[in-house]
Amino acid sequence: MSLVTKALDQSSILPEELFLKKERERARKLRSSQWWKRKRSSGICQYCKNNFLPKELTMDHIIPLARGGKSEKFNVVPCCKECNTKKNQLLPWEWEEYMASIKQ
Ligand SMILES: [Zn+2]
């Protein structure tokens, strides 16, 4: 058995789980950054464009981590809990429809 196979054998963590773990950790760091605090301070939800208290806004991954999205600045936006919950519950195309319906 080669060293590489041995190393893989010893870890029961799937590459996907490892990816999620890493990206969640990066999201956590991003959330405590000045960049994020400044972005959130506008109090505007990126999706419904309503005004909220900055602390009410959550960090949303535009491309979800589960779909291979990363915790990069271009992939995270402040959004309200309602939009975040909706986005999590809806299928991507249903979310598109919802977004189209709230855009005037
Ligand atoms: Zn919203």
Descriptive report:
- By secondary structure, this protein is mostly helical.
- It has a single domain, classed as DNA Binding (I), subunit A (Orthogonal Bundle).
- Helix content is 50%, strand content 8%.
- The protein is built from 5 helices and 2 strands; from the N terminus they run H-H-H-E-E-H-H.
- A two-stranded antiparallel ribbon has the order 1-2.
- The longest helix is centred in the first third of the chain and has 17 residues.
- The N and C termini lie far apart (62 Å).
- The mean pLDDT is 90.
- The protein binds zinc ion (ZN).
- Zinc ion binds next to helix 4.
The portion of residues forming beta strands comes to: 5-15%
Total number of distinct structural domains: 1
> How are the strands of the biggest sheet laid out side by side?
1-2
Q: Looking at CATH, which topology would you report? A: DNA Binding (I), subunit A
| Nearest-integer average pLDDT | 90
